[in-house]
Amino acid sequence: MNYHVLTLFPEMIRQGLETSIIGRAMAKGIISLEAVNIRDYAFNKHQKVDDYPYGGGAGMVMQAEPVFLAYEAVKAKIGRKPRTVYLTPQGNVFHQEMAKEMAKEEDLVFLCGHYEGIDERVLEEIVTDYVSIGDYVLTGGELPAMVMIDSISRMVPGVLSNQESGETETFAGNLLEYPQYSRPEEWRGRKVPEVLLSGHHANVEKWRREQSILRTWKMRSDLLEKAELTGKERTWLAREIEKVQNRN
Length: 248
Ligand code: ADE
Description:
The chain is of the alpha/beta class and about 250 residues long. The chain is built from 10 helices and 9 strands. About 40% of the residues lie in helices and about 15% in strands. Strands 2-1-6-5-7 form a 5-stranded parallel beta sheet, sandwiched between helices. The protein has a two-stranded antiparallel sheet with strand order 3-4. Strands 8-9 form a two-stranded antiparallel ribbon. The termini are far apart.
């Protein structure tokens, strides 16, 4: 996977992603990251990249040409028109399935905006995906790009040491992950659930599955509608909910 980030703050992107698991994957050559400074493509006296909006209003707009030239440079390097993500609160909200699907690409271009946005005409010309990372407004697209790169990268084969874990965690099948415990067996009076010490693999799996379902109901009941539960599990959950409600 080769990431190409078009930005006014390339250092922010490099520094934000060079550590930890993503940094290790880059060192191993499984993924690569190129942060392209849009300002390097502003061929005017002061390397200016923004201007006033036509029609008036607050703030400045990033101009089309430097963005386009930065993109063209990346496109020439790749040798074809790449999938290009523009980070914007107006986009489709990012989710795990999107991360999984984008992880299949050979190259991904991310376009980070600043100020009051980017001239619409260049967006029409180059953007294939408009993506938001949630319903709040940030000062620029760099943090959203890093969030996406982190999340997509862990779905790229070889990035996680145990490939399994990319699939079995939170959001797999629209369920949250079950609770985890490590040593000691008792911590400040709180014990590890008995079943986890039993060594009985099938019981452990059953307990974890139930905890996932229960936790999803408690914390993110909106996900449950999409979750794949068996009829038996739905009946079990209905009973559990009843129990909780009778307690209150
Ligand atoms: N740029 C500013 N806010 C954003 C958001 N929530 N998601 C993606 N890009 C953004």
